[in-house]
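Mods, move this if it's the wrong board.
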Amino acid sequence: MSRPAQILIAGDDQRRAVRLAEACGARGYSTAFARHGAAALEVALGDVPDILVAPVDLELIEAPKLAEILRANPRTQAVRVLFLGHDQSAARERGYFDDTISLGAGAEDIALRIEAMLAQRDRIDAVQREADAEQEVQGKLAQIPLTDLLQLFHMNRRTGTIELVRTEAAGREERGALVLRDGNLIQATTGRVDGEKALFRLLAWSEGSFAFTPGPVTMAPRIVTPTRALLMEAMRQIDEWDRVKESLPALSGRARLALPQGEVPNAVHPVTQEVLGLLEHHEEIRDLLDQSRYPDYQLLRTLQTLAERGWIELLRDGTRGEEGPDEGLFDAAGQRRLREWLQASRPRDMAVGDAKLLLAAADPGSARDFVSLLGALPGMRLEPEIAKGAFRGDDLLSVGRLKVDEGIGIEILHVPTAPEFAACWPALAQGALGTLLLVSQPVRDREESLRPLIETLSRSAPVRLFHVVLLRKGERLAREEVQASVSLLDESSLFLVPLEEDREPSSLLRTMLARVLP
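Not the wrong board. Structure tokens:
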């Protein structure tokens, strides 16, 4: 009879530990407990667990440090860690097979994540047995992510070639290849690119199949960066990509300079310099990605930043590429973050409802213009009277609901800035994702009318304010000019949104909404 999975639950929250133990017991898992990090280390060394569940801020030895200690010990290096709560140190120390979940997640949700981690471990173990037998290994990327596969081959010093294939939404077959020598990546190819750029592109694949063929490799290395460093950087980029990909330019779109050639500022950052140079010869975003020597993610972020500054235009052209969402604005990662945030902010026995986002405009015209933009977003349903054009821009009302997934959405509420509504502002902002402050030019004068609201909300903690500057036809404005004029809480809270029909506002709204998410 096989040994039941052993789950070590660490932390001083006894109620959570008991509930989680019950959920694990219902699945046939065995559980052990430790009140702090030192006790968890002692228990793990005595009876090695399959999964360690621990809050990031575990007492005596914090969970990221504890995970590092366990991985350094040959006896416990296979232990997988489920971090409770998100923290930059946890992200740095997270092993390839570790995972994170919200600190406020319920016992059943944590148990489901444990179940998924154990199932993934079993699939990886099966791949390792085939590789140990020097057999060709085949599988699906949906079951074994490529980062996990490469980590496995790296630890076991495999030599050979991994062939990858997937079918894009348009039905076109896409192929790639990774070459390993003694577990180290030495070459990657896909389409017209190779090396590290191709590697990062392939590591973003979540669907498709792989086939590893063992055998000698004689080619000169094209990739020289240590494999572990590459995979850790890839995991960081994938996490960030999952968080903001719905806000990045569409891969099927185009970009062009918005300024006359003689007015293009001298760029200091090398990525910006390269993008501006490439735009003299290319408009298709896919061509820009292939021609650039920088990773796709970095280039797309640069394009988005240049569009926000008004240096370039992002043009509508066809549908989003496969890496974008099929419908709506939010991918699975964004949906999960919002749901976990909603769960953490409500009593355990209360059903999760919609989130709330406030709009406040310096003038009624800006409110009406922005609501018109919102109405064109995928998943946005305006209130019937608003959709009919009855919105005056100076009344307190719900503008509509933005769908996040089948169960939750974001209610968008317009808040008047007139003094008679001042007593309502703190109560309306309570529990909201944030407040969008809408202004048009002249920015400094318009922003003054918002100052009482800004000062009132800033005295309410916590508060998140996002400035949205609406640019009408022919208007151009540098971010630096606006930052000198408005009451910014931080640089990331500013968005320049064009109102011209031939400009592309939707990608900027995607960026804004991605940052609004918790």
